[in-house]
Specification:
It is globular, with a radius of gyration of 13 Å. The mean pLDDT is about 95. About 0% of the residues lie in helices and about 50% in strands. The N and C termini lie far apart (about 40 Å). By secondary structure, it is mostly beta strands. It has no helices and 10 strands.
């Protein structure tokens, strides 16, 4: 079955950077649009970035110019490079297909704090 395993989160100061990774297994990764989502306490889960099978990308306005999504078909992995992090980026980050499926991985926690 499909598995989504996120990693790379952590505690970072405002202005810092992190690179998240998500390994996808159990499906033909390369043909699907993938997304990175995040959920902060008390908030709904939101899509922050997506990348098509052809490499086209879209970003939420809140992260545009700071985050970069990419994918490596050989590694079945999707990445999220996050630069110039802000406190409001604090959330649990998940990868999923776009549109998302009902299964979610465990996510990876990103905390931006001084």
């Amino acid at each position: 079955q499909v598995q989504l395993v996120e990693s790379g989160g952590g505690l970072v100061q405002p202005g810092g950077s992190l690179r998240l990774s998500c390994v996808v297994s159990g499906t033909t990764f390369r043909i699907f649009t993938m997304g990175w989502y995040r959920q902060a306490p008390g908030n709904q889960r939101e899509l922050v970035a997506r990348i098509t099978s052809g490499g086209s990308t879209n970003y939420a306005d809140s992260v545009k110019g700071r985050f970069t999504i990419s994918r490596d078909g050989a590694k079945n992995t999707v990445y999220l490079q996050m630069n110039s992090l802000k406190r409001e980026d604090t959330a649990t980050y998940y990868c999923n297909f776009e549109p998302s499926i009902g299964y979610w991985g465990q996510g990876t926690q990103v905390t931006v704090s001084s």
